[in-house]
């Protein structure tokens, strides 16, 4: 009797293991089939004109509303992400895909000239992401997204910033302006800090960068709207044509005694 119990118990355990294996294999097959189906669906959707179609569709936006969004978004995802969000958040509502699937928040790394390294200003980088996705590759009779991106970087360099004035500013008092003569975060912010005598972590410096971001978003949409109307004629150029190497036309803003340093009061 004892032997029969042991044998019955062993059979029960063996059956349980076999059945569990069958269930696991069945579940794995279901997951694989589901994943495969989703993969096919994604490709089908892409062929239908969603995430993989390039360039992306664009409808005209209000520059002022875009700037207002960018100003507020700066305090959430900073310069580059805010420029992208100010345009794409509206196109999510007006167009839908592929804008709904675009991971805007992933571009928070553009903060501080890309992860705080003071290189290209995030608002310049964000604007270039937008222009290149919307304008796409060169098309006969149209303008390249890189050329519009180059134009807006030159505009950033030449403009007395910030231009945008929020209806409800984050800081009180007059906002000093400065001209960067460079698309770089280090130079742009450094010159403003010197002009305003404000520290990098000051509320005024943060508000300044939020306003610069909004200024960029406003001008970006002006250019995109003109392009949509068929009235855009690019002013963009590639400096490499003049120098024979990828470069910017105002190198001496960094490679000279003009390199900005923190205000004397902040040292």
What is the count of structural domains? Answer: 1
The helix-and-strand class reads mainly alpha
Roughly what is the average pLDDT, rounded to an integer? 82
Query: What is the helix/strand order?
Result: HHHHEEHHH
Number of strands: 2
Computed over alpha carbons, the radius of gyration is 27 Å
Describe this structure in words.
The protein is mainly alpha-helical and 267 residues long. It has one domain (63-266). Helix content is 55%, strand content 1%. It has helices at residues 2-47, 63-94, 122-135, 145-158, 185-196, 203-228, 240-243, and strands at 160-161, 178-179. The chain has a two-stranded antiparallel sheet. The radius of gyration is 27 Å and the shape is globular. The N and C termini lie far apart (91 Å). Mean pLDDT is 82; it is low at 2-11 and 13-50.
Question: Which descriptors apply to this entry?
Answer:
single chain, 267 residues, mainly alpha, 55% helix, 1% strand, disordered N terminus
Question: Quick summary of this structure?
Answer:
The chain is an all-alpha fold and 267 residues long.
SSE layout and pairing:
Blueprint: H1 2-47, H2 63-94, H3 122-135, H4 145-158, E1 160-161, E2 178-179, H5 185-196, H6 203-228, H7 240-243
Antiparallel strand pairs: 1-2
Helix pairs in contact: 2-3, 2-6, 3-4, 3-6
């Amino acid at each position: 009797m004892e032997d029969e119990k042991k044998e019955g118990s062993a059979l029960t355990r063996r059956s349980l293991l076999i059945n569990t294996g069958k269930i696991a294999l069945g579940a794995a097959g279901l997951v694989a089939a589901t994943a495969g189906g989703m993969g096919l669906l994604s490709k089908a959707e892409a062929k239908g004109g969603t995430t993989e179609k390039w360039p992306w569709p664009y409808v005209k936006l209000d520059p002022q509303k875009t700037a207002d969004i960018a100003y507020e978004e700066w305090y959430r995802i900073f310069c580059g992400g805010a420029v992208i969000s100010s345009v794409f958040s509206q196109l999510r509502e007006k167009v839908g895909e592929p804008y709904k699937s675009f991971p805007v928040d992933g571009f928070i790394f553009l903060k501080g000239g890309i992860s705080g390294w003071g290189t290209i200003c995030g608002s310049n980088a964000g604007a270039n992401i937008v222009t290149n996705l919307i304008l796409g590759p060169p098309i006969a009779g149209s303008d390249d997204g890189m050329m519009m991106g180059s134009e807006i970087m030159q505009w950033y360099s030449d403009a007395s910033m910030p231009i945008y004035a929020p209806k409800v500013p984050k800081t009180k008092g007059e906002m000093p302006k400065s001209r960067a003569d460079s698309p770089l975060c280090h130079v742009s912010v450094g010159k403003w800090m010197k002009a305003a005598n404000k520290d990098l972590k000051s509320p005024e410096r943060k508000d300044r960068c939020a306003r610069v971001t909004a200024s960029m978003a406003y001008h970006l949409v002006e250019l995109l709207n003109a392009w949509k109307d068929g009235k855009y004629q690019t002013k963009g150029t590639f400096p490499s044509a003049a120098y024979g190497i990828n470069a910017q036309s105002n190198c001496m803003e960094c490679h000279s005694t003009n390199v900005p340093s923190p205000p004397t009061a902040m040292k």
